[in-house]
Amino acid sequence: MMKIAEIGDIIEFREGLKGIVEKVNENSVIVDLTYMSNYRDLDLESRTVVNHKNYRIINAV
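RE: above sequence
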């Protein structure tokens, strides 16, 4: 069984993007992308939704 991220965990998803989990939903997490040092260069929204199947936990709280 896959481990589901918790609030405060750092996750990696979609080709190396990283972020901090802000909210855990039933099927997904909401991630703050401003954690990445190159966030401003990537022209992304500050938050995104990632399905539990599509990330791996880098640093658990």
